[in-house]
Design brief:
about 110 residues; about 0% strand; mainly alpha
Length: about 110
Amino acid sequence: MLSRKALAIASLSTIVCSAALADEGFKSSKFLTYSAESQSSYIDTAAVAATVVVSLNSATQAKCLGAWVAKHRAGNFAPVVEVMRKYPDDHPMGLIIAVLQKECGEFKYAR
């Protein structure tokens, strides 16, 4: 039987990673052709999902991520979009996670 933690993570993964957007061939260059509203929604969903998962491991890190989301939401997550422009061949999700980890620390936890 799966734990509640595992089920929560699985549910979030399903929400964040739709089949088309989780495709390995999906690149930031394609993501940047989407409307600013769609970009912001995707980044917001990914960042909030990461915050929920992180909160299961580190309250301090979750607080950092929550503050980062609140700070950058109104600006359509410009720091992430800037990184995507620099790395157009990389997957958007990987770059979102990289920006979040740079800001609030690595998502590595001891078991």
